[in-house]
Model the fold of this input.
Amino acid sequence: MHTVQLLLKTSKYERHEIDRRFHALAHLHNVCVKHARKCMIRLQHDKRYAELRQLYNELVKKEKMSKEEKSQKKKLAKQLAACRTEQGLSKASLEHYIKVCGKQFSKLLSSQQVQAEADRVWCGVERCLFGNGKELHFKKLMDFDTIGGKSNKNGARFDLDAMYVNWLGLSLKCYLPKSENSLSYVWESLKGKISYCNIKRLMFSSGWRYYAEIVVSGAAPTRVSIGTSTMGIDPGVSTIAGVSEDACVLEELAPNAIQYEKKIQKISQSMDRSRRISNPNKYNEDGTINRSNRDPWKYSKNYVKMCRLLKSLYRKKHAYIVDSHRELCNKLITIARYFPVEKMHFQALQKRAKETKRQEKKTEVKQKDGTVKVIQKYKRKKRFGRSINRRAPARFLLELKRKAEAVGGVYAEVDTKEFKASQYNHVTDTYEKIPLSQREKEIGKRKVQRDLYSAFLIRNADLDFKHPDREKCEYEFEYFANLQDQLILKMKESGLSMRQCFGF
Done:
């Protein structure tokens, strides 16, 4: 499956009509969420369900299970599913409930579009029941940007011959791109069978713009020629390092994303000031929100404009990050076909440290009486949350995997705990943990950049991806060291520097 997004030509009446349909969908979504939350509360108070769940969890915790225990586990799973169905917590029951509620909007939304929204709610319920979800939340009208579909015969139907979207009385023309390359790519993408059509809206500074998101079966056409070599990838929070047979790559992820963050921060501060001026009764004397006050919030016209501008900036930031990642992925794919990548857990890295620890080094502090006191400062609890938000490294790895597999490449993950690329020294065949601030390592008689050397080791991994192939590393190390020296020299001459990550 792949998607083709085309801009819709809309009049004032058509924009108003589409906004009415988004408003109806938001109402149905929140009604369905309210119903699902009630069902989940009933399920929590079900004693039988609690007993069955306890028995099921005890069996799951066991490392090895006998045949009887496995059959018992299956029976318990069926019984738990039956309990959830009794309380109305199933995909079919939510679809039936929202179908009844959606009859009043039959002129605005089709039955399949309503069912698609019930499926979204069910995904949230599944995360709460079986995943790491804590609570099922309601959504604001501004957060709704897509009206989904299930087939091209119901709801929003895309007509390829006329390049129109017909949707319950609305006939919306699709704009085609002006450039020849983009136009040829669109026509090539639309050759497959059209599965369904979504209606999407994006916020711009001038207001909403509406798009037809056409979902087409089959793989998307490729415009990138794939390489032949193997490239080891060492992903970082802000950078990416890659080493192949003939090339070294050291790049900063989304280098201009900070510009959008500064604008977002400035507008957010202005919005906060406006909100406080318009609602003095909603705040305590210390500046915190007064939760006991139930008066409705008041917003000025300028606040509403800034809200739209903020949403537009978030859209621009997201679009820039995605485009930057895709360009970098295309660059890597033209070099290599096989991508062994170090597995990263960015969700753990973005959280603050729980334990309070002191620094190893001691600091001298001069006091008022002139005496000097030696103290050990506390370590910062902040980790990499802001950098991950700014650079989106996990999104880059997803894009690399998708693009590599689309053109016939191979994406494989290396277990960090077993491989330990950042600690290994192939010359001494030992592991040594070095601080994160140290961006250079001395391997033999050569100094190497830390991330590039890790990518070099990942590229020369053994067949099990559990340990570097030492003989292969010794054979190719000198050539790699010369390549990385050339790369670093070129980057310094062009003015590219990032001391905290690159080391220069």
Notes: The chain has 14 helices and 19 strands. The chain has two domains: 2-46+87-216, 229-257+314-364+371-493. The longest strand covers residues 194-204.
